[in-house]
């Protein structure tokens, strides 16, 4: 029995030695294969759908490294010709224009609006974004004027100028539609009225703004009304005349629609002059922007006091012909 066990152990030992010798004899072949495989010939393919575009990664242009920027999803682009339309599609005959911070979510402008091309101007000067203002100055007026100047020869029939917020009481309290929604407001807009009238304020509730928010020659002067105090001098600089109205009234807050024909009643150089004033004025950001808030209706052909009744406004702006 012991002899049989010793023979078995000896046989296993011989088999192990033979196997090890065979592997050593093949080692030169393995080395030869590895020497002919260069790093350039080793390719790893990553399918785009498997890339994790984590929200924790810094967005391009805001402090990320070059390697991180190359991994980012392509940013949505908004060009003058067809901002939100596929490249093979005809542009819509309506445009919506807004200024936004690079951190604002404005996807609603390209996904929820019916028949509108979106022109979103990033105001905090991110050079990687196709449309951006030169400086973050003058509130929404900067983006509005930039669009008109850049697209003066390419305007659609109707242009709406709005803020970047989609809905909600705190941010969009001045939007009259259900849930204070700009989507509801724009999708319900009666563009026939815009074409007839040239201008439509998207806010029908008169307060604040109507009937006499700004009185440039109020006596005694109320220094707390900074827009009113600055208005007369701003008018003279912007329009180059002394025809400053005694009273200006319009429902706030610089969200409106205009027709192409109405925009073209002023020359491109006039809009350039307005924008230059906005960029060069020593007025603070809020005051300079609010000056335009009470000028837009006048710029686009309305009387200095534009305060239709609430009912008439809703019928005109959101009714159907």
Automatic annotation (TrEMBL):
<keyword id="KW-0732">Signal</keyword>
<feature type="signal peptide">
    <location>
        <begin position="1"/>
        <end position="19"/>
    </location>
</feature>
<feature type="region of interest" description="Disordered">
    <location>
        <begin position="47"/>
        <end position="92"/>
    </location>
</feature>
<feature type="compositionally biased region" description="Low complexity">
    <location>
        <begin position="80"/>
        <end position="89"/>
    </location>
</feature>
<protein>
    <submittedName>
        <fullName>Uncharacterized protein</fullName>
    </submittedName>
</protein>
<dbReference type="Pfam" id="PF11913">
    <property type="entry name" value="DUF3431"/>
</dbReference>
<dbReference type="InterPro" id="IPR021838">
    <property type="entry name" value="DUF3431"/>
</dbReference>
């Amino acid at each position: 029995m012991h002899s049989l066990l010793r023979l078995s152990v000896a046989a296993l030992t011989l088999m192990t030695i033979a196997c090890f010798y065979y592997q050593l004899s093949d080692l030169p072949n393995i080395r030869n294969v590895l020497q002919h495989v260069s790093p350039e010939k080793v390719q790893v393919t990553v399918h785009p759908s498997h890339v994790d575009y984590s929200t924790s990664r810094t967005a391009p242009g805001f402090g990320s490294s070059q390697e991180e920027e190359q991994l980012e999803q392509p940013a949505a682009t908004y060009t003058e010709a067809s901002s939100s339309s596929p490249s093979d599609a005809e542009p819509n005959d309506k445009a919506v224009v807004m200024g936004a911070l690079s951190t604002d979510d404005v996807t609603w402008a390209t996904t929820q609006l019916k028949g509108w091309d979106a022109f979103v101007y990033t105001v905090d000067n991110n050079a990687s974004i196709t449309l951006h203002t030169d400086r973050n100055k003058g509130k929404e007026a900067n983006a509005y004027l930039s669009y008109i100047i850049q697209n003066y020869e390419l305007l659609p029939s109707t242009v709406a100028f709005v803020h970047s917020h989609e809905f909600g009481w705190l941010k969009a309290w001045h939007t009259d539609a259900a849930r204070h929604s700009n989507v509801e407001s724009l999708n319900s807009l009666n563009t026939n009225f815009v074409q007839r009238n040239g201008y439509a304020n998207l806010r029908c509730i008169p307060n604040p703004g109507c009937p006499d928010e700004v009185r440039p020659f109020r006596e005694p002067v109320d220094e707390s009304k900074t827009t009113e105090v600055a208005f007369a001098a701003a008018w003279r600089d912007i329009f180059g005349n002394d025809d400053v109205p005694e009273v200006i009234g319009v429902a706030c807050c610089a969200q409106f629609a205009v027709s192409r024909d109405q925009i073209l009643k002023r020359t491109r150089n006039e809009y350039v002059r307005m924008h230059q004033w906005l960029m060069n004025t020593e007025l603070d950001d809020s005051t300079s922007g609010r000056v335009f808030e009470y000028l837009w209706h006048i710029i686009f052909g309305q009387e200095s006091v534009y305060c239709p009744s609430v009912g008439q406004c809703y019928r005109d702006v959101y009714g159907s012909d």
